[in-house]
Design goal:
Elements (H helix, E strand, L loop, with lengths): L1 E6 L4 E8 L2 E8 L4 H16 L8 E5 L5 H18 L3 E4 L1 H6 L10 E8 L2 E9 L5 E3 L4 E3 L13 E3 L5 H8 L5 E3 L6 H13 L22 H8 L1
Parallel strand pairs: 1-4, 4-5, 6-10, 10-11
Antiparallel strand pairs: 1-2, 2-3, 6-7, 7-8, 7-9
Keywords: Acyltransferase, Cytoplasm, Transferase, tRNA processing
GO molecular function, one term: acyltransferase activity
GO biological process, one term: tRNA threonylcarbamoyladenosine modification
Length: about 230
């Protein structure tokens, strides 16, 4: 199958094209430049693989959780392209995509964590299936690094910017073999997860795709900020 994948839920901007299991990607840490980069990158990757937009079978998108603006941008672009081409969308958890960055030797549960700002982190637990793809072991959660609920698991690895949030409070609660607080979600991993989801029949009509914000409020009042600082 042929997929275009878009992941912009964090500071990283990433676009990939997958053609029958072969994936090409562009990735850059580019805060506030996602809207500028995504479509030119998509066109360049399609040209590199010899595809036209109408050759695509589906559009894959990182549905969050992550930065509100980045999640909204990715969903909007994916829906717009899919509607124009009359193609479905495959929405994938950004935390699941991040979990793909866990060190390969890790043979146990993986925690994916994204710094949600405002003194909180997004987290979710995953185990690898027989094909090495992460499968959720619990719900996606939002909370303070020192108190967000965690499954009682023999963690093998933990990845993502949430490990460094709150002076590393989340990492201090884990007994994981491997930590990588610099890991970011990549569209190449999103494309692989989306291809598996497509095979399971999980593609959606563009208008049915919903973002996963987890947080209702995207800003705190000054009083709330003072309360969080203690």
């Amino acid at each position: 199958m042929k997929l275009l994948a878009i992941e912009t839920a964090t500071e990283a901007c990433s676009v990939a094209v997958a053609v029958d299991g072969e994936v090409v990607e562009r990735f850059e840490i580019a805060p506030r430049r996602h809207a500028e980069l995504v479509l030119p990158w998509a066109d360049a990757l399609l040209a590199e693989t010899g595809l036209r937009r109408r050759d695509l079978d589906a559009i894959a998108v990182g549905r969050g959780p992550g930065a509100f603006t980045g999640v909204r941008l990715a969903i909007s672009l994916a829906q717009g392209i899919a509607l124009a081409l009359d193609r479905p969308v495959v929405a994938v958890s950004t935390l699941a995509t991040l979990a793909m960055r866990a060190p390969a030797p890790a043979a146990g549960p993986v925690l994916a964590a994204i710094d949600a700002r405002m003194g909180e982190v997004y987290v979710a637990a995953f185990a690898r299936d027989g094909e090495g793809l992460p499968q959720a072991l619990g719900p996606e959660r939002l909370g303070a690094p020192g108190s967000v609920p965690l499954e009682d698991l023999p963690w093998a690895a933990a990845v993502g910017s949430g490990l460094a949030a709150g002076e590393g409070a989340l990492a201090a609660r884990l007994r994981a073999v491997a930590f990588d607080p610099t890991a970011m979600p990549h569209a190449a991993d999103l494309a692989r997860l989306a291809a598996a989801a497509w095979a399971r029949g999980e593609a959606l009509a563009p208008e049915r795709v919903e973002p996963a914000y987890l947080r209702d409020k995207v800003a705190l009042t000054q009083a709330e900020q003072r309360a969080r600082r203690g």
